[in-house]
Amino acid sequence: MLKRSYIYIILLVFGLVSCEKEIDVKLDDAEPKLVVEGVIENGEYAYVSLSKSTPYFSPVDTNTFNEMFIKDALVVVSDGIDYDTLTYDTVLAFPPFRFQGSKIKGELNKTYTLRIDYEGQTYTSQTQILDLIPIDSVKYEYEFDSDSLGYLWFYANDPGNRINYYRYSVLDLNVDFTKELPMWLYTITSVTNDKFFDGRLIEGRMYKGRNPLKSREYYEEHSEDWWAFKMNEEYMLKLSHIDYQTFMFWKTTERVINTGDNPFASPTTVQTNIEPNALGSWCGYASSVVQVKITEDILKED
Is 13 exposed, middle or buried (0-12, 13-18, 19+ CB in 10 A)? Predict the structure, then answer.
């Protein structure tokens, strides 16, 4: 489970920026910051995972990793009328260490505020669950020169005359959930806007994203097919309509992850919507989810 820590370390190293200001973070032993991973989705209770950032060169072992997670904060979500005080829990999902809501379920076209009280400091944020853009259909396409490995295509209709932002992911239903945590997998570029298909059909090609809990050795061993979907397998696909702040957080985070240690890449400042001076995000998702079994019936026509 240590591999999940990469995102928190990356966020510390490169720093985060809100919509108004930039924060420069040096690669020394900076003071730990609050790291927030908060989500509210239509039809689901909110959850918030809190941790402390770690200096870039600090060793990370099991004890250090466990100590990174915060259990004693006050976390409250509001829809402007009701309030939901989240309770700390350990769950069989990812992230497993989280504050879990129990009163307010996400609804379409609503705004949600987040308040966190921790060590004498109050942190706040706001996000939206927008309108639903449903997945209309799903198709399967074999990879070039392959009769066993392929991609999934999803189709949806983009509303015109406005800028829309999306994030997409896949849940593999072929794994043994008694041995692995259920986890939505994201590709290395999981967000997009509708710049090139405003008001037209969305045609999204998906491959399986990497599971951050699996080792590098696993992906080296399965380098030929880890990304691929196969006939007779079952998956759940999710297309989430997101606001601009959520889009920019994931776009800049993924850019940092994808450039890695490339010295020729342009520096990227990750954006956050948590104030003041915290890392991470509070994200609202209007999600359309479909379950699909890959059969000859959904083969994509040339």
Answer: middle
Letter string b/e over residues 241-263, b meaning 16 or more CB atoms within 10 A of that residue's CB:
bbbebbbbbbbbbbbbbeeeeee
Query: Cis before residue 182, ω within 30 degrees of 0?
Result: no
Cα distances (angstroms) measured from residue 61 to each of 2, 64, 154: 7, 5, 40
In the predicted model, what is the mean pLDDT of residues 201-222?
A: 92
Higher-confidence residue of 245 and 65: namely: 245
Amino acid at 159: P
Mean pLDDT value across the chain = 86
Burial class (CB in 10 A: 0-12, 13-18, 19+), 75: buried
Show me where the domains of the chain are located.
2-130+248-282, 135-241+288-298
By CB neighbour count within 10 A (0-12 exposed, 13-18 middle, 19+ buried), where does 270 fall?
A: buried
CATH of domain 135-241+288-298: 2.60.40
